[in-house]
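Handout, section 3.2

Students often ask what a structure token actually looks like in practice. Rather than define it abstractly, here is a full record for Stage 0 sporulation protein A homolog. The first block is the sequence as you would receive it.
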Amino acid sequence: MRLLIAEDEKSLAKALGVILEKSGYSADQVYDGISALEYLETGNYDGMILDIMMPGMDGLAVLRKIREQGSRLPVLLLTAKAEVDDKVEGLDSGANDYLTKPFAPKELLARIRAMTRNQAAGDSVLKVGNITLNRATYELSSSEGCFSLTNKEFQVMELLMSNPRNLIPTERILEKIWGYEGKTEINVVWVYISYLRKKLVKLKADIQIKASRNAGYSLEARDD
């Protein structure tokens, strides 16, 4: 299950990411409202942890924007405010739940489980061509067989399958999946693309991962 964390306190965002990943979730982190909207446009998420107080565009404005677009994405609001009116405004804007800082990790995880529990099973499956990616089990499959992907393989494949025929810059893949630290060599993206290409061949996929030199990768129909 993949979540988006939108929290302007970087230390808290990273701590939330660690908590979630230790509990089996995949999590992306952004630090302002505009970036949150950009990630929602290109990513496929099961839920969102959204701080109210953020620069540029606050959490409530982000929430109203995605609800206006018709998104039913489960959203957990984080707030430092304890006033009832603030919580009511958040719920009225379309939040599924709220959590007041500071909070215990166990409470956070319980709230996430509760708000995502009722998602339709179909939301956890991506299908492009004859290839299916199960977002709950990390399984990549076709009628020819099935592979269990590693966490990084899954994230790369999910990003490509969520944006078929769209060129995704290599730097964007690196940033979304390996984070903002700048410690990871860009060649690691090619390594994981190579792993996935081999699996697609074995699955006799009618889609392929195409590379655009010095630009990025896209998921396309096979030429043959």
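Discussion prompt for tutorial groups: Helices lie at 10-22, 33-42, 59-68, 84-92, 105-116, 151-162, 170-178, 187-202. How would you have guessed this from the sequence alone?
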